[in-house]
Amino acid sequence: MFRQAKWEEPLIFELSREGRVGYTMPKPIEDVEIEIPEKLRRKSSLNLPELSEPEVVKHYTRLSEMNYGVDSGIYPLGSCTMKYNPKINEEIASHPGVAYVHPYQDERTVQGALKIMWELEQWLKEITGMDRFTLQPAAGANGEFTGVSIIRAYHLDHGETQRTEMLVPDSAHGTNPASAAMAGFKVIEIPSNENGTVDLEALENAVSERTAGLMLTNPNTLGIFEDEILEIAKIVHKAGGLLYYDGANLNAVLGKIRPGDMGFDVVHLNLHKTFSTPHGGGGPGSGPVGVKDFLKDYLPVPLVGYDGKRYYLDYNVPKSIGKVKELYGNFAVMVRALTYLKIMGREGLKNASEIAVLNANYLTQKLKGTRGYELSHKELRKHEVVFSAEPMKKETGVKALDVAKRLLDFGMHAPTIYFPLIVHEALMIEPTETVSKEELDAYVEALKRISEEAYSNPEIVKGAPHSTAVKRVDDVLAAKKPILSWRMYIKLKEEGGVDY
Q: Pairing mode, if any, of strands 186-190 and 165-169?
């Protein structure tokens, strides 16, 4: 059974009817005169829509139903780990003792908040095998920039000014080379081998006295574990470089293996992925960075310290790279993450990873062999799988983009498409551990039905979505004429220029 997408909802201004009222103004206080300065008085009406309260409630309820999120159904964006956000997380984060803490308060008045940050760091150290963490970075890419900036500061501090190159696999997240370039490094791409993992020969040929480090995700973006990681670490370290861990895919290995034990020197984590805090909608995120002991003096300030009696903000970081975000980071996200960690515990985290891997491999086996979808590289995956729709494109003209759009007609969110770049027409699917077997079966059924449509009536897929409020978006028009307000929408609609 597939849930159909919602029909189009008019703008609230289009629902307005003159004379309808949805509020009652309070009676003025007797014997009180309020003089409003002339310069503050409105010169024209507010031009608000006129509706009754039930109409307003129905309108916004319908809008909420048109939206799609982790509470709606499967949200299998590969490498994004869009797992369910437990409601207890929100309850704790909205507690007045958390929500009303101000970052400018005296340390003595926020001991509870500092304790939360301290305890979260202890959890992250144990999970990753790192020795010290900064909780300041606002998200994954901010964490990447922080991590590679620490690597740069370390080499400069040791007089290694020639180390200007950062090695990045061709399967890496796009933010990896961007972060390295922003930190001043020249990016050297390392190709993958036939198994989808780092080509050791190419890596050995690339390292030199100019190598600052290697940025690596493990499992990588194909969902494949870099089984030669110890040899990779040996090659990089022998050349004098450092090993950086992109924590986007940590959900696959929680409780199984730690980045620190694999040879990584710097780690960034995505609390808004792995540890079930809200993800998307512009944030906020949180991308803590952990380092081995020899790098702790380069971390951003302040860190959170504890002397056995009190918690405090520690600015005694001699070689700090400075700040990477104002204040102390996105505190409410940290609270949600710590809540999740305390509820799950060691065994719960391990179990979550096992189910995430099971779900990804179950989906792989169910979809494998379906006409038009080709499984890339190794069959056994960790938390996610990448299929290629290139055979379908060659044989029917239906592209990965079309498949993604057609999934919307079945009331399902599309997977990540066209990534990683080394897989043509990529469909990158990460179901996470919070998706049931029934949802996985329905998703596979939808993908198989789309395959049948592609080969029997491809125009149905090419024209999708058909049942959503917004049809196929004109990407060029949306970029050149973005609709940023309802007035712009009305204007463009009158001009006949709105088709997205």
A: parallel
